[in-house]
Design a protein that fits this description.
Keywords: Isomerase
Number of strands: 21
Number of helices: 14
Distance between the termini: 44 Å
Largest sheet: 21 strands, mixed
Radius of gyration: 23 Å
GO molecular function: isochorismate synthase activity
Number of domains: 2
Shape: globular
Protein name: isochorismate synthase
Bound molecules: the ligand C=C(O[C@@H]1C=C(C(=O)O)C=C[C@H]1O)C(=O)O
CATH class of the largest domain: Alpha Beta
Family: Belongs to the isochorismate synthase family.
CATH superfamily of the largest domain: Anthranilate synthase
InterPro entries: ADC_synthase (IPR005801), Chorismate_C (IPR015890), IsoChor_synthase (IPR004561)
Helix content: 25-40%
Length: about 475
């Protein structure tokens, strides 16, 4: 990637932008390859979700992620460049594609700005193949035409454009100029429209595969665990909701990000009217400043209504042999996979409690130093799916999931995240999530089944996990 430090004295006119883009066009001709131009500038403080909502069109691809606790929100929309490989090599192919894009990228602006340069937004389905008519391909990565990041009191707006031989520079320059002007004095559209709408009502809720299906599946897998076929498997349920009007994914997220500030509120829209949204408590992996962090999250208890009830339930979870075992399985697997990549991991495996609005979990943050030559997507490829959402041993348990679930997981429990030009970024696990499509929404929730699991209790646990989305659908 070429980096061009912005000369503020020269860059503030439309003519300067035009001349600069003309230079990029020469470069594209000279190199015989289209160039990705990424122009970053600090803007006044914006709320990325509100920006996305203001310019929301359901036929446009977008990506949004925010974790209030970290004071970080990113939104990007409309694709400037995208790629969707499928199959067993999908992570490696995405990694390769990103490297090739960066070879022909020109990043403009103050390179010391946080979130400088192009960012790649990506979603992978749980399984490596997806059906041709599935809402999301088995992997997708895109560079948005515009992106807004707000973090720790600063806001960076990025405009991306691809410039190829023969392109109309005038049109591209106008678009970028208009976008930059728009972000400098952003006018949020009035959401009066929302207050004028009737409150949304859910007309129908239907369990995929029928009401008895989940408990029957749990019974069946418990037999298989007993026979030694595998040690742990995660089974999920899907609820299909139909409302009297279209769900608005971004309005749902506004509530979710407030109520679940320890979770990643996220949305990934395919540009065909469907979006996958959620409030995930689980980070698959992040890479920042030479550190790798992975959440080990498994073992669940309800929240109490009073402080003492809550503390009692938390203490019960910490002492539960079955939940500790469930957690230990995930911890061992995560550490082993990181070690297989040559990383040395922090040894502490004593879980603490992660308390969310609706449930509490056993939690450990596994940390390692990033080693030379290891890319974030190598980590994603190796870790996904952890036994928190797949099973153990992975080769025996994960292929059996389809035999017991009556729906396609799609992006549910898949890695969803972003990567910057330095290879830093973050992937969450797509749980506590829903696929939203007009007036239809499919909600997902799963549980780990190990020896000692009780079907009725696992069913109740999934009901608690459904709450996050169910209660916030408006
Ligand atoms: C699979 C899900 O959650 C996972 C399973 C958990 C469990 O079984 O205790 C806890 C946290 C998550 O890792 C889900 O929410 O759908």
């Amino acid at each position: 990637m070429d980096t061009i430090p912005l000369d503020p004295a020269k860059a503030k006119t439309y003519e300067a932008l035009h001349a600069f883009l003309q230079g990029c066009l020469f470069k594209a001709v000279e190199r015989g390859k289209p160039q990705l131009v990424s122009i970053a500038a600090e803007s006044s403080l914006l709320d990325p979700l509100a920006v996305l909502e203001s310019i929301y069109e359901d036929r446009q691809q977008h990506f949004y992620i925010e974790r209030r606790r970290d004071d970080l929100a990113i939104a990007g929309a409309e694709d400037a460049l995208s790629f969707s490989p499928s199959g067993a090599n999908r992570f490696a192919e995405v990694k390769q594609w990103i490297a090739e894009v960066l070879e022909n990228a020109i990043a403009v602006g103050d390179s010391s700005l946080p979130f400088f340069g192009p960012h790649f937004f990506s979603g992978f389905t749980f399984f490596e193949e997806s059906k041709a008519d599935a809402p999301f391909p088995s992997s997708s990565v895109f560079v948005p035409r515009w992106q807004v990041v707000s973090s720790k009191g600063r806001c960076i707006a990025i405009a991306n454009a691809v410039i190829a031989a023969g392109d109309d520079i005038e049109a591209i320059a106008k678009r970028i100029w208009n976008a930059n002007t728009k972000f400098r004095t952003f006018d949020y559209t009035d959401s009066d429209e929302r207050s004028l709408r009737d409150r949304l009502r859910v007309l129908e809720t239907k369990e995929c595969g029928g009401d008895a299906a989940f408990k029957e599946s749990v019974e069946r897998v418990l037999k298989r665990i007993d026979e030694g076929e595998f040690q742990k498997i995660v089974l999920a349920r899907a609820l299909d909701l139909k409302a009297d009007q279209a769900f608005h994914p971004l309005e749902i997220l506004n509530t979710l990000r407030e109520r679940y500030e320890d979770c990643y509120a996220f949305s990934i829209a395919n540009g065909k009217g469907q979006s996958f949204i959620g409030a995930s408590p689980e980070r698959l992996v992040s890479v920042a400043q030479g550190r790798v962090n992975v959440d080990v999250l498994a073992g669940t208890a309800p929240r109490g209504k009073t402080a003492s009830e809550d503390a009692r339930l938390g203490a019960g979870l910490l002492e539960s042999e079955k939940d500790r075992r469930e957690h230990q399985i995930v911890h061992e697997s995560v550490c082993r996979r990181l070690q297989d990549l040559g990383l040395s991991v922090s040894e502490s495996c004593n879980p603490s409690l992660k308390k969310l609005q609706n449930v509490q979990h056993l939690f450990v943050d596994v940390e390692a130093r990033l080693e030379e030559g290891i890319h974030l997507l190598d980590l994603v490829a190796s870790l996904h799916p952890t036994p928190a959402v797949g099973g153990t041993p992975r080769e025996d348990a994960v292929p059996k999931i389809c035999e017991h679930e009556r729906f396609d997981r799609g992006l549910y429990a898949g890695p969803i995240g972003w990567i910057n030009a330095k290879g830093e970024g973050e992937f969450l696990v797509g749980i506590r999530s829903a696929l939203v499509d007009g007036e239809n929404a499919r909600l997902f929730a799963g549980v780990g089944i190990v020896e000692g699991s009780v079907p009725e209790r696992e069913h109740l646990e999934t009901n608690l996990k459904f709450q996050a989305l169910k209660e916030n659908l408006l």
